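## retry 2 of 3
previous attempt timed out at serialization; input unchanged, resubmitting
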Amino acid sequence: MTQIALESTVIAHGLPKPKNLEVALELEELARSKGCIPKTVGIVEGVPKVGLTKDEIVAIATKDDVLKVGTAEISLAIARKLWAATTVSATMHLAKKAGVDVFATGGIGGVHGGEWDVSQDITELSRTRMIVVSAGAKSILDLKQTLEMLETFQVTVVGYRTDEFPAFYSRRSGLKIISIDTIEEVVEVYKTKEHLDLPGAVLVCNPIPEESEIPLDTFNEWKEAALKKAELEGISGKALTPYILSEIARISGGKTVEANVALLKNNVELACEIALMLQGGGYERTTDN
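## retry succeeded, writing output
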């Protein structure tokens, strides 16, 4: 039984309604079509679940009071019997406890520019041993500082067929990382970490498909406009990332949403390929998605 984990914050807070529900169900179906069992992670009325039902996904996508939780807030959501969507950190923690070794997300959190603001994702990546497939870190972050923090916390960062840290919507950031060209080598790196009992994740950076890429300069213009508006409105902390992404989606006329969907699907496909190879079944990637 080959499984991959999927997060729920992208459903509750990352994509606009009703696109969020449509994409959540498409990602699950894509994983099944590639031979994997999708395990979307969330908290349902205080019960952590690794593998939400369709009805639970619908609820998380449509309810207005779904809490956004990192690892630190899991116990709070459980104690208060809340509905909660899991970020990268919380998804990793819960999925690994349930025996899932491969996780596909959009982009990890990291270091914000300006005042001190660092995502729990980095801490969880440093201590939870699993394979995380992402399109780098979210473009609204300080990517140079994020990559430096990942190195400091001994996260194994590799690029899948790229020697640059992807910038989420853009394939290149100018920041160099180690390139790995084959699924077999990704799996070998992970198995070596297990053999040596080394902590932390293998972060596999998978660039957005070329046809869906947004030029970095263009995105940075949109980001600066969104950040200025957030500052004027006093938006900070956990609310900052979803606010900025929503504002950039508005400024871009929906182009960032389309790009986000494309990179999510790309990451799910690669995660399935890795998971199947990890289980010893092998995989032949198709081009129908």
